[in-house]
Write a structure and sequence with these properties.
With 833 residues, the protein is mainly beta. It is built from three helices and 66 strands.
Length: 833
């Protein structure tokens, strides 16, 4: 056998010694000839005649250089090794609560496409799975499917794979340990397979086994105890062994046939030895089977086909359904969400929706969040009562993603929306492409959103939020529109007085609480006065089970603190003194030690009203001057508006201020401090301006009104008596007027839902998760949140209404209020619960 070696043929040194001088002499002679005018003109005419060809050649050379550089960079760039420190993704949306979020990872705080993956004209109907720094998803082009793995941070494609003849699919990949499992096929596919791939380093993408069914496998599999549970459309439900070493003929553990379990489309769930399956058209049921044997244990008839993936939390199952599928809807499109008690396997409650619910219900400790084909995102409490909703103006087919701070949703218009979780207010949005079938549910991990599109591949979107302390109390009663309850918590049913803080320093005299508290998860700031001594105490609330709070630190101030302090991150802010007091200052205080970091002078005649957010501090530090500072004491701008005595609304780009004198409403460009517009008001404002969905809500002596954020023109006015504190979210407003009426109504047109008499005027209502707590003549009272008249008011008592001397704050299920002769009083439930 001959062996050939390819050896480069290079000139010898002797040859080079002869050739190089000759070449140099030729070049020099040519350059010298260009000095003759005739020769130069001839060369220029030649270049001009051949200009097009020369431009093409130059372009090709430059393109070749750039291509070579790009290819070289791609070939030499190292790919980060797989990180398996994070949790597995063994089911649709990653967990039984269907959050679609790698818990603990920060969600992105702003939008923008970072990278995209996939082939041209490839659709990603499936939802991604994220494990460590790897993103897995399935792409479909024509009727061909392919499973991909990308580096989550860079978008580099690590591998792609598919068994022979693998067809387009809606099924999403799931990952457990060394294995990835996915289905095959769309609705009309037959003889579709369940596919298992290897994800171990060095063997990535290797097909370990496939299992053929007699129908399609749009269902996303569920890996549970080394078994794969999957629906196969009209072929029913399968339980398969995950182990690749099992012979193919022994792969199936059991099969529940399609004649008993028709249209098993949706992703099922396995929990505590049982499998829960929703049945679509022709089934209209929720079924439970033994995970080990496949034996049917129970079946609940449902009013609609069940296409929503079930979620499970604390002994209850939540599932959506309706008269529609991902492509088609009916003339009588309707749906509902059901809560099923897993102990009795009976429906505990149901919530009717105007259209089908096709995505999963994201379940949290106190909320249920889901999208509906009517285009709205709904938030319910665990009793099935609506808390709020938000209109995306286009059908929501995919599941929402729920993180600690945000909700992310994608609608059919191709818009990805990031909403503040408390208020359902848009924080940012980005277009993913043209309108179409956006069936892929977003996943949040590593500070990004990963989501599939119909025409633009799999997209990585957003910038990670800065690594900062997110604790915030914007100012008076939690900021505009919060009315004392910023976190949306509720007062427990077993509410009682937990403790009274009579003296932060342990003295015998009882202090006076001089302003409402500021509260975060770990701290409560209490402005106090003790005789001629003024200051603020910080209570350590990290130990929620403690009945008597520990005073972390206290600071003295030259004047009484007559308005709420504010908190942002690890810093507290306060303004001491009231109008007319000398030696007033804006103080910045370290939240850990109580050390004053810096001070700013506040003029004696200034209101001193204070508002903060994560990007700045806004204070009325002059008689008619509003200033913005950074947390490091840099004055960014000052604008002269007039007298402002209430918090300003702090949006990302626009501030809104209600001016007492002259009575007006003003919008300010946040970066520059420039006045954008100003409109006169009929009467002086009595509440801070609250902005929800680009509309401003403002209380006044003459009632409540709504105005446009664009130019301030009035949208509606609801006549009433003077309003003192206003709560507003996307679904409702709540206030107490000067006649002691507790009023709720619609922010869309101002119409009144309910009017309840017996509230104490001037004290704020506390709007929690599913109730309103207010001060009545006999003390604390509670009414449920309803759109119809309240039948009965629950009288809690607990406090003497005549001795309450500060507005109330509700945070973490506890009420904090100053009471004459008792100091700070805390009302809450059993601390051990």
């Amino acid at each position: 056998m001959d062996v050939f070696a390819v050896v480069p043929i290079l000139p010898t040194l002797t040859s080079l010694a002869v050739i190089v001088p000759v070449l140099l002499l030729s070049i020099l002679t040519a350059l010298a000839s260009l000095r003759k005018p005739d020769v130069a003109r001839s060369v220029l005419r030649l270049v001009w005649r051949q200009k097009l060809q020369l431009l093409i050649v130059v372009g090709l050379i430059l393109g070749a250089v750039r291509t070579f550089g790009w290819v070289s960079a791609r070939l030499t760039r190292s790919v980060a090794p797989a990180q398996r420190s994070g949790p597995d993704w063994p089911m649709h949306r990653g967990s039984l609560k269907r959050h679609g979020w790698v818990a603990g990872d920060k969600g992105p705080s702003c939008g923008g496409v970072v990278w995209s993956g996939g082939r041209p004209a490839e659709a990603f109907y499936a939802s991604p799975a994220v494990v460590g720094n790897r993103v897995f998803c399935v792409g479909s082009r024509n009727d061909a499917g392919r499973i991909y793995c990308w580096d989550a941070d860079t978008g580099d494609r690590i591998w792609s794979s598919a068994p022979s003849g693998y067809r387009a699919t809606f099924s999403s990949p799931v990952v457990a340990g060394d294995y990835l499992v996915c289905g095959e096929g769309l609705h009309h596919t037959r003889l579709a397979r369940v596919v298992c791939l290897d994800v171990r380093p060095g063997s990535e993408g290797h097909v370990l086994w496939t299992f053929q069914t007699n129908s399609h496998v749009e269902c996303t599999p569920f890996i549970y105890r080394d078994r794969v549970y999957v629906g196969a459309g009209d072929d029913g439900i399968y339980c398969l062994r995950l182990d690749p070493d099992i012979p193919d003929e022994s792969r199936a553990v059991w099969h529940a046939p399609g004649d008993r379990f028709p249209d098993a489309e949706t992703s099922l769930v396995a929990h505590e030895g049982k499998v829960y399956v929703g049945l679509g058209v022709g089934g209209n049921a929720l079924c439970v089977l033994e995970a080990e044997s496949g034996k049917e244990i129970g079946r609940l008839s449902m009013p609609y086909p069940v296409f929503g993936p079930p979620a499970i939390d604390q002994g209850r199952l939540y599932v959506g359904m309706g008269n529609a599928d991902y492509v088609n809807s009916t003339d009588e499109s309707a749906g509902c969400v059901c809560c099923v008690d897993l102990g009795t396997f009976g429906v505990e409650w149901s919530f009717d929706t105007p259209a089908a619910v096709l995505g999963a219900i994201a379940v949290d400790d106190d909320q249920l969040v889901f999208g509906c084909c009517d285009g709205r995102l709904y938030v319910l409490d665990h009793q099935g009562k609506q808390v709020r909703s938000w209109d995306s103006h286009s059908p929501l087919l995919a599941s929402p993603t729920l993180t600690d701070r945000f909700v992310y949703v994608v609608n059919r218009a191709g818009m990805l929306h990031a909403l503040d979780r408390r208020w359902l207010e848009p924080v940012w949005e980005v277009s993913l492409g043209q309108p179409g079938l956006y069936l892929s549910s977003p996943v949040v991990a590593r500070g990004r959103v990963f989501v599939g599109t119909e025409h633009d591949g799999l997209l990585c979107v957003g910038e990670p939020a800065a690594d900062v302390d997110t604790a915030i109390w914007p100012g008076h009663l939690g900021g505009p529109g919060a009315a004392g309850c910023r976190d949306g918590s509720s007062l427990p049913q077993d509410a009682r007085v937990l403790w009274e803080l009579r003296s932060p320093t342990g003295g015998e005299s009882t202090v006076e609480v001089t302003a409402p508290v500021a509260a975060t998860a770990n701290s409560v700031l209490v402005p106090v006065a003790d005789g001629g001594r003024f200051g603020m105490a910080c209570l350590d609330m990290a130990e929620a089970v403690k009945e008597n709070p520990h005073v972390r630190w206290s600071v003295d101030t030259p004047n009484a603190i007559t308005q709420s302090p504010a908190i942002v991150g690890k810093r507290a802010f306060l303004v001491d003194g009231q109008v007319g007091s000398p030696n007033r200052n804006l103080h910045c205080i370290d939240m850990s030690l109580g050390r004053v970091l810096w001070r700013r002078v506040v003029e004696p005649l200034a209101s001193g009203v204070l508002t903060v957010d994560h990007a700045g501090i806004f204070v009325q530090d002059g008689l008619d001057a509003l200033s913005q500072f950074t947390v490091e004491d840099e004055n960014l701008w000052t604008i002269r508006l007039g007298v402002v005595t209430r918090c300003v609304h702090t949006g990302p780009n626009i501030l809104v201020a209600a001016v007492d004198a002259p009575p007006s409403l003003a919008a300010i460009d946040r970066p520059s401090g420039r006045l954008l517009w100003r409109v006169a008001l009929d009467t002086a404002p009595t509440t801070a301006p609250s902005v929800r969905n680009n509309r401003i809500f403002l209380g006044a002596d003459s009632g409540l009104e709504s105005r446009s954020l664009v130019d301030g023109h009035r949208l509606w006015h609801m006549a009433d008596d003077r309003i003192s504190s206003l709560y507003v979210d996307s679904d409702k407003y709540v206030y107490v007027n000067a006649n002691g009426h507790l009023v709720t109504g619609s922010p869309d047109d101002g119409s009144v839902f309910t009017r309840t008499v017996g509230a104490v005027a001037g004290l704020n209502p506390l709007v929690g998760q599913n109730e309103i707590v207010f001060v009545g003549t006999t003390g604390l009272s509670r009414v449920p949140l309803r759109r119809e008249a309240v039948a009965a008011i629950e009288q809690l008592g607990l406090l003497d209404a005549n001795r309450i001397n500060t507005p109330l704050v509700l945070h973490g299920g506890r009420i904090y209020v100053g009471v004459a002769g008792r100091g700070l009083v805390c009302v809450g439930g059993d601390p051990a619960q």
